[in-house]
Amino acid sequence: MPLQRLTPAQALQKLKHYCAYQERSHSEVKEKAYGFGLHRQEVDEVISALIQEDYLNEERFAIAFAGGKFRMKGWGRVKIKYELKQRKVSDYCIRKALQEIDDTVYQKTLEALAKKKWNSIRGAGTNGFVKMSKTRDYLIQRGFETDKIREVLTKMGNKEQKNNE
Fold first, then answer.
1. DSSP states along 47-60
2. Which of 10, 73, 87, 120 has a CA positioned 20 to 30 A from the CA of residue 37?
3. What is the pLDDT of residues 92-124, one digit of tens each?
4. Using CA atoms, how far apart are residues 15 and 67, in angstroms rounded to an integer?
């Protein structure tokens, strides 16, 4: 229960600042509004006002979220999609956001992460199979698609074999 119940007008002002600071999903803003002690109808009215005044835009949030997580954290499309679903973003906005990620940059990022992980694996018994397995697991955890991972690892495995011959 909130310590002090805000009026819808007060809550709207606070939520405008909350949304102006960074892009927010509808579910985050709803949660915050309920935290201010608003009732369902008041929350719906406040959300509607925020959308009309362009403080809240789910598509813009999804694109900013996807781009940020990809560029800053090196997340793959699978993980980004999962996280957006957790935030109750619509499938349309998720598709739109994932399309904004450039395919060539995505591929280069995947290859760079794979190479970095591959080269970091050291120790006794690290044959090609172990390296491939650990690198694959790492890239899956980062949220990259298994077919793209397989392509990259096949290339790396072939290079490794040529270097060892």
1. HHHHHHTTS--HHH
2. 87
3. 999 999 999 999 999 999 999 999 998 888 875
4. 24
For the chain of 165 residues, list the mean pLDDT of each consecutive stretch of 10: 75 93 93 92 94 95 96 96 95 96 95 92 74 92 95 82 63
Three-class secondary structure of residue 38 per DSSP: coil
Structure tokens at 90: 């619509």
CA separation for the pair 8, 152 (Å, rounded): 53
**Rounded CA separation 142/79 (Å):** 7
Contact 76, 112 (CB under 8 A): no
Q: Which residues of 79-98 are buried (b: 16+ CB within 10 A; e: fewer)?
A: bbbebbeebebeeebbebbb
DSSP H or E segment with residue 23: none
Say if residues 121 and 62 touch (Cβ distance below 8 Å): no
Q: Give the pair of three-digit tokens for residue 46.
A: 């406040």
Which 3-state string (H, E, C) describes 150-162?
HHHHHHHHHHHHH
